[in-house]
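Suppose you are handed a protein chain with no further information: no name, no annotation, nothing but its sequence. What can you learn? This example shows the usual starting point.
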Amino acid sequence: MAYVDHAFSISDEDIMVGTSYTVNNKPPVKEIALAVALLVFGALGIVLGFFMAVNRIGGDRAHGLFFALLGAILFIPGFYYTRIAYYAYKGYKGFSFSNIPAV
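A reasonable first move is to predict its three-dimensional structure. Written in structure tokens, the prediction is:
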């Protein structure tokens, strides 16, 4: 028996057929809070990591650089989703709150 994916099929039994479809563009508060927290903690980790590397706090420079790398891993998605939320809030074309994934 073959596998059939019905996720993209359109039938008469589909709920969306014949009904009005409205876009819910409310800001997702939890997701935006997570993005801002990632941005802040990532930036803090980068700054503190480089400070640790320069002053050799915690041993050698490798510890500070590793801390800065972890901060960068937090900073990148935080910046990306905070930017999307900001542009969606300002109403830029092509940006909406639906582009931010649910937590």
